[in-house]
Amino acid sequence: MVAPDSLGIAEELNRFRDFAHGRSAAAGWWLDPETGEDLSQSPSFPYIVASKLMLIVSEIAEAMEGHRKGLNDDKLPHRLMIEVELGDALLRIGDLAGKLKLDLGGATVEKADFNIVRPDHQPGARRAHGGKTY
Predict the structure, then answer these.
(1) Separation between Cα atoms, residue 118 and residue 34, nearest integer Å
(2) What residues contact residue 80 under an 8 Å CB cut-off, 6+ apart?
(3) Which candidate, 10, 19, 20, 9, places its Cα nearest to that of 93?
(4) How far is Cα 65 from Cα 93, in angstroms, rounded to an integer?
(5) Please, are residues 39 and 45 in contact by the beta-carbon 8 Å criterion?
(6) What digits encode the pLDDT tens for the residues 65-106?
């Protein structure tokens, strides 16, 4: 259940999901480059989803490398690499969630609301032996 004050955030995240997927679909990223067929109709679709998930991971890895080296982005040099790569990750997440018709906004705010009361996320539990330090 999503808290009432989080509904607007959920709606905005789903608008972002639709934006990201719309841009990606318009660019043809969900079409077979040889046949033009919708990749979701392919028997390989589960592997395509797996590839898209790993592309999200690669964006996060690029963000870490940019942060580690203090780099600006090579395509948007006025921006830090970490912020551009995190943006790329968000776009890829939104695109995949859109293709799969996931309620990304609802799930995100519901998880955020849960994390507020989650016992292992409380300061005392984090300070305890074996607690989550980060």
Answers:
(1) 48
(2) 66, 67, 71, 72, 73
(3) 20
(4) 20
(5) yes
(6) 999 999 999 999 999 999 999 999 999 999 999 999 999 999
